[in-house]
């Protein structure tokens, strides 16, 4: 089974880390062609640590290479290299396993939808931090990062309904008031990613009551080729999210217009 855990508290806010996981089911390992290092490269390690906020949490422990919750049903299992950065992921994964994983995908989405429905019923609104990270050194570990093309933080907002435009602006400004490594934060929208399927699905289905913002941190907080983390930088990213909660709380308590 795809592993994930839910931590619920009395809050309208959620932190999702759906690509943090690295586990592959033991039963599926005979069909897995990728090494742990190859998988880690495209996973989002340490985003679960960033999601450890005083709000609801949805954390996926299984690798996206087993089942990608951020893809639609057709693409959630990487059966072709075109679905996985040119990587050959599986060696003849049995159809029965594909069907089982697809059923899990549908069940997980049903559970997520129920959680958001309950949050809306209780608070009248919801907000999801959809936390991810991305590689900026595609050519090799010594590549110099093209900072014009790779912002420190990319916000995926393409699927958010227009009614939340002011909230997005306030959210982005809350980061711009902070610093990372002593520098003003370069945060931009939809440069590297516009938001994945989970973002699109939930914004389409529940977008009148709240929104999902995908937050992609450039992997400055780790060596993206070896996976070695920088704990202080991970803490700094988490602190940015924590600080932004003040802006969100103020907006929904004072500025939100139905």
TrEMBL record:
InterPro entries: N-FG_amidohydro. It comes from the Bacteria. SUPFAM superfamilies: Zn-dependent exopeptidases. This is N-formylglutamate amidohydrolase. It comes from Sphingobacterium hotanense.
């Amino acid at each position: 089974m795809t592993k994930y855990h839910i931590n619920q508290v009395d809050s309208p806010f959620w932190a999702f880390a759906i690509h943090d996981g690295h586990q592959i089911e033991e039963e599926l390992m005979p069909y897995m062609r990728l090494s742990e290092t190859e998988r880690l490269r495209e996973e989002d390690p340490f985003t679960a640590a960033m999601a450890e906020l005083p709000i609801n949490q949805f954390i996926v422990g299984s690798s996206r290479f087993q089942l990608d919750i951020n893809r639609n049903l057709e693409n959630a299992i990487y059966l072709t290299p075109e679905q996985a950065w040119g990587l050959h992921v599986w060696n003849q994964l049995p159809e029965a396993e594909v069907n089982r994983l697809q059923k899990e995908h549908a069940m997980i989405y049903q559970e997520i939808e129920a959680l958001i429905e309950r949050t809306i019923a209780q608070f009248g609104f919801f907000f999801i931090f959809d936390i991810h990270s991305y590689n900026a050194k595609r050519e090799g570990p010594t590549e110099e990062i093209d900072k014009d093309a790779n912002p420190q933080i990319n916000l995926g907002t393409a699927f958010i309904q227009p009614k939340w435009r002011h909230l997005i602006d306030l959210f982005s400004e809350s980061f711009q008031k902070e610093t990372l490594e002593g520098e003003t934060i370069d945060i931009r929208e939809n440069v590297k990613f516009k938001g994945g399927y989970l973002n699109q699905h939930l914004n389409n289905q529940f977008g009148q009551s709240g929104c999902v913002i995908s937050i992609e941190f450039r992997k400055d907080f780790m060596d993206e080729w070896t996976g070695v983390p920088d704990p202080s930088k991970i803490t700094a990213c988490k602190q940015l999210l924590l600080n932004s909660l003040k802006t969100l709380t103020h907006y929904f308590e004072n500025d939100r217009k139905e």
